[in-house]
């Protein structure tokens, strides 16, 4: 199996940590270590995987059995864990986003550039069946030149709740944009092959987090108490991104807003368009033609429902380690570009003006910074 002989340590043993642990185990890797501040989590993890557990990551990254580290902690702690793991010679997979701030993300990137191990970032929706279908059709030229992407990750009511790390700007770095909007943004930039970006405009809103009468029909935020904790992060963001070659991206991200929920991802091309839900299995292709008479053609492609983005992403991580090559996807350079655009959206919201990035090749600038 692809992960045979690779010892994996998980830092952060909550839901995401366990998801990755199960995934890499099924791919043949051995989960040898775990770290979490919560003793109960450590005990459960040790029992399930027979793994050595640590209260903090410092002991885990120097454990001789650990070849690769997967980081699933709150955003603020991505940097110290990833940096220590890379400096210890481990391979690293960091859950999205790369970090809680652009400066922190850049420090991880500099460390990764000098490290022997690889560093990848957890944007699993690139590997979902819907995106795999799109990539193949796009490679065949079916869509022509891509012109615009509408990217949505919108909950009608889905604020994690005051008191969680998600709503603490010191731990998360931001709200709905850094939590769920980052998925839609990364997928849009990935679809356009990370084009040069000229201008970013955005508005971040904090509307619902302080409401005592916040309606939460699904109980997403559990015990809501608007006065118990501070809430200083965005619960919705609207953004528009112009690329140097004319492509554009419109982004809607929300934990809560008075509209229908949506994870719709729509791609416009000169020859055809595509639409699917982020992370979903199926892909719809929208075309028009003149054969016989002028007509519309809607083609539905049904993907393999057993293909999950998380499993495919973890497989890429383990395969890259096994082959001793550099990553071809989910690279730290790409994640740094995503982080820069997020930073630009927040800066645009603060200033009330578009953030100009004209004539800046973000990937080349990144290489110049870390070399």
Strand arrangement across the biggest beta sheet = 14-13-12-11-7-10-9-8-15
**From the coordinates shown, what is the CATH architecture of the largest domain?**
2-Layer Sandwich
- End-to-end separation in angstroms reads 36 Å
Q: CATH homologous superfamily of the largest domain?
A: Dihydrodipicolinate Reductase, domain 2
Total separate domains:
2
Task: Give the biggest beta sheet.
Answer: 9 strands, mixed
Tell me, briefly, the overall form: globular
Q: Please tell me the overall pLDDT.
A: 93
Number of helices: 11
**Any idea of the CATH topology of the largest domain?**
Dihydrodipicolinate Reductase, domain 2
Q: Which class best fits the helix and strand makeup?
A: alpha/beta
Determine the strand fraction and express it as a percent band. Answer: 15-25%
Main CATH class of the largest domain: Alpha Beta
Q: How many E-type strands? A: 15
Radius of gyration equals: 21 Å
Spell out the helices and strands N to C.
EHEHEHEHEHEHEHHEEEEEEEHHEH
Helix content: 25-40%
Uncertain segments are 358-371
């Amino acid at each position: 199996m692809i992960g045979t002989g690779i010892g994996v340590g998980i830092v952060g043993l909550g839901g995401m940590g366990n998801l990755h642990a199960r995934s890499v185990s099924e791919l043949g890797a051995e989960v040898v270590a775990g770290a979490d501040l919560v003793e109960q989590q450590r005990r459960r993890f040790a029992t399930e995987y027979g793994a050595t557990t640590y209260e903090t990551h410092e002991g885990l990254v120097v454990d001789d059995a650990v070849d690769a580290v997967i980081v699933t902690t709150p955003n603020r702690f991505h940097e110290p864990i990833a940096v220590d793991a890379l400096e210890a010679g481990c391979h690293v997979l960091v859950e999205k986003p790369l970090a809680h701030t652009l400066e922190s993300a850049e420090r991880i990137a500099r460390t990764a550039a000098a490290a022997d191990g690889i560093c990848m970032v957890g944007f699993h929706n690139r590997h979902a069946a819907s995106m795999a279908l799109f990539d193949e059709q796009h490679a065949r030229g079916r869509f022509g030149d891509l012109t615009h992407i509408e990217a949505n990750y919108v909950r009608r009511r889905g604020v994690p709740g005051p008191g969680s790390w998600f709503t603490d700007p010191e731990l998360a770095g931001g709200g709905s944009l850094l939590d769920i909007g980052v998925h839609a943004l990364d997928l849009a930039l990935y679809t356009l092959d990370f084009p040069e970006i000229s201008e970013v405009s955005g508005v971040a809103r904090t509307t619902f987090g302080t409401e005592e009468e916040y309606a939460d029909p699904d109980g997403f935020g559990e015990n809501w108490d608007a006065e118990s904790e501070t809430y200083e992060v965005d619960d919705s963001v609207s953004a528009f991104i112009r690329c140097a070659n004319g492509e554009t991206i419109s982004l809607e991200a929300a934990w809560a807003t008075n509209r229908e929920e949506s994870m719709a991802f729509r791609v416009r091309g000169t020859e055809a368009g595509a639409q699917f839900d982020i992370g979903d299995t199926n892909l719809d292709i929208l075309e028009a033609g003149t054969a016989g008479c002028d007509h519309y053609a809607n083609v539905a492609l049904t993907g393999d429902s057993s293909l999950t983005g998380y499993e495919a992403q973890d497989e890429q991580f383990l395969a890259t380690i096994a082959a001793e090559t550099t990553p071809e996807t989910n690279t730290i350079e790409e994640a740094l570009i995503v982080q820069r655009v997020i930073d630009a959206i927040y800066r645009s919201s603060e200033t009330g003006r578009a953030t100009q990035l004209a004539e800046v090749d973000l990937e080349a600038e990144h290489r110049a910074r870390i070399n």
